[in-house]
Write a structure and sequence with these properties.
Blueprint: H1 2-29, E1 42-46, H2 51-62, E2 66-71, H3 74-85, E3 96-100, H4 106-119, E4 127-130, H5 145-172, E5 179-183, H6 199-215, E6 222-227, H7 234-240, H8 245-250, H9 259-272, E7 276-278, H10 281-289, H11 299-326, H12 328-339
Parallel strand pairs: 1-2, 1-4, 2-3, 4-5, 5-6, 6-7
Bound molecules: NADPH dihydro-nicotinamide-adenine-dinucleotide phosphate and 3-Dehydrosphinganine.
3-Dehydrosphinganine binds near residues 186, 235 and 309.
Amino acid sequence: MDGWSSCLTTTATVAGAYLAWYAVCAWQCRRAMPALRLRGSHCYVTGGSAGLGEHLANLLAEAGANVTIVARNQDRLLAAQKRIQGHCADPEQQRIVAISADVANAAEGTRALHRAIKAQQGQAPKYVFACAGLTTPRFFLEYRPQDFEQTMQVNYFGALHTIQEAAKLMIQHEVKGGRVVTVSSQAGLLGIPGYSEYTPTKAALRMLTETLYYELAIYGIAAHCFLPANIRTPGFEHENQTKPEITRIIDGDDEAMDPRDCAQCMLDGMAKGYPNITSDWLGDIVRATCRGVGPANNMALDTLFVFLGWFLVPLWRVIVWWQAKSCRQAEAAQRKQVLSQ
Ligand SMILES: NC(=O)C1=CN([C@@H]2O[C@H](COP(=O)(O)OP(=O)(O)OC[C@H]3O[C@@H](n4cnc5c(N)ncnc54)[C@H](OP(=O)(O)O)[C@@H]3O)[C@@H](O)[C@H]2O)C=CC1
Ligand SMILES: CCCCCCCCCCCCCCCC(=O)[C@@H](N)CO
């Protein structure tokens, strides 16, 4: 009897101590973050001439923001600028600025920010969205060395240089409640065959954002990482031209999201103060499972997602393994061909 009661007391003490610790951690998750105030703010969107970036710019214009879009192709930029202007809540008051720059080039990318401030009558960006990014999926063995480097240059370094300069400018201009957003992907959380040129760039962004989540807080700047699943965009059409069949099957390309809904999802996540914003419940499971020691969105929900992951992750592995096995013959033939070249 004594043994039982001491066992129960120990279990209750451990459970109670854990619950208290959980409550402390959950409380720590409730970050005090100034509310999103888009009206009248300067929002800076790289990759704003197409896809996710353009639809985000539309939403920002509808909310009354001054928007700057950045991309390389001048014609597409000007066409997008016109379309975004059509979304302004108050066209007389709002400024929609378009700047041509290659964000992969550090000097060009940072110059674009300075040009944007000038064009926005001295107003520094308050919300910075690093959307520019791309992928050309292939089998690992088919890529040339420069393919990996170029994608890293645009997706990772493009976002990094923009965010670093933007943070400096926010501090200089004493912008209050500034936020930076990197656009990673669900593919920055898990490995998918066919995305070897892409997933490391998105994983790198995730870790950069986690670091900045803590570090930029020193200056009162919040950092978010957006990790969406497939989105129906021109970029998605481009990637589908080279996407191996196994990649198409695994990432379920028929379920691609509407880009406007996806952009809205990003803004909703920012409004809730989520450090890592996902676009669907599978993404939430993967995000919570991959969280490591990073910040949670919501301790209770994230714990539930991890629990669901216990059952779904092994299933996911079986599916990927089975897909890989079922196209092993084709892959082996391809590998032979590439290696014999
Ligand atoms: N579509 C999808 O399924 C998913 C996309 N993502 C990510 O979301 C982001 C947006 O994707 P999506 O909307 O599909 O992309 P799109 O290809 O549709 O649009 C990309 C935009 O980025 C611009 N851009 C590309 N490279 C550069 C560069 N070097 N410098 C400046 N601007 C550049 C493009 O204009 P221009 O070519 O004229 O420079 C265009 O405005 C990307 O980071 C992508 O990786 C994440 C998950 C899923
Ligand atoms: C819980 C365990 C189960 C895990 C299931 C996860 C399902 C993942 C689906 C993969 C979606 C990847 C989208 C990448 C999109 C992307 O970034 C490209 N289209 C590039 O533009």
